Amino acid sequence: MGKQLSVNEWKYLFEKYEKHRSWELSKKCFLNEMMKIKNVKHISNDQWRILVDKYERYNLGMNIESMSGRSPKNTKAQAG
Fold it and tell me: Looking at the whole model, is its pTM more than 0.70?
């Protein structure tokens, strides 16, 4: 499995994916970029689906940062 990508790396991949969708970049060139960034030798169908899903959510204005592991701070109610 490849490494977890930073926000800037996701944005870079999204830019390349947009070029691929507009036929400015071939699928092979795009996959080579993606493999280089993710540090893998092969892009599986699951990884491709994750990219497309995340790209669609990103275009809807959602935050691309993962919220897992981030819980709200517990504040103790003060008696008063």
Answer: no
